[in-house]
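WARN retry 2 of 3 for item q-0093 after timeout on previous attempt; input resubmitted unchanged.
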Amino acid sequence: DLHPGYMTSHLATRISQETDTDLVRSQHHHAHIVDVSAEHMITKDDPVIGVAIDGAGYGIDQAIWGGEVIISNYSGFDRVGHLEYLPMPGGDLCTLYPFRMLVAALTNVISDDEIRDITKNHITNGALPYGERELELIMKMSRDERTIKTSSGGRFLDAISALIGVCYRRTYEGEPAMRLEPLATLGMLNKLGIEPEIYRKEGIFILKTSDILYKMVEMSNKVNFRDIAVFGQEYLASGLAEIALRVGKEKGISMVALSGGVFVNDFITNRITKRLSGEG
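OK item q-0093 returned
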């Protein structure tokens, strides 16, 4: 009898009330990192830097998180870094039609006329079910401050998948990112040579994603799509690893926990692990 949009937290609240038991709340990405800490028997007095990358988890600021760096212990966490917030017009429709996510991201950096120009070939090739009408609505919604925002690593990978035409419609869980992953072994890693763009706002490190998606759009007619695929995944991995390293050096923490669905991606996992272990 659960209606669409009914969250597990709603279900837990109902069960708690019906059974007169205590309700203990845990933020999605903190739970990811606590899980790793418990698995490796980290003591309660040892904080870790957690890198949690996945598709979606409800954030404490009411945005949809999914590309997070936190300082975590068993009792709580501080968010110290994340991916840039991108609009998510239509909510979960962006997971079904990843081209929506690409258009939304581009509204952070360029005008509607520019988006119309660079997406016209995709639109005619079926990237959006309702074509130009849908494109116009996506742009309008993306520029509306009331539209929900996301820092999801999964949605960033989805946008890249749509950009290079790998997946326009998700038919199973994680399909756009999963179809992107094997291309990482076929592209040339250093061909694009762009460093992660990280800035700091109110003490929190933020990895820019909209600018790099626009640059990848510009490159799409000049370089092999496999090179764009490997670069996009490398950008996510190296950017979040760099934030974790900066936090670790500032706070004197040398232990990092990795968790979340994106770590099913072997390329991203190996790149982050190699970078972190290389720095001790």
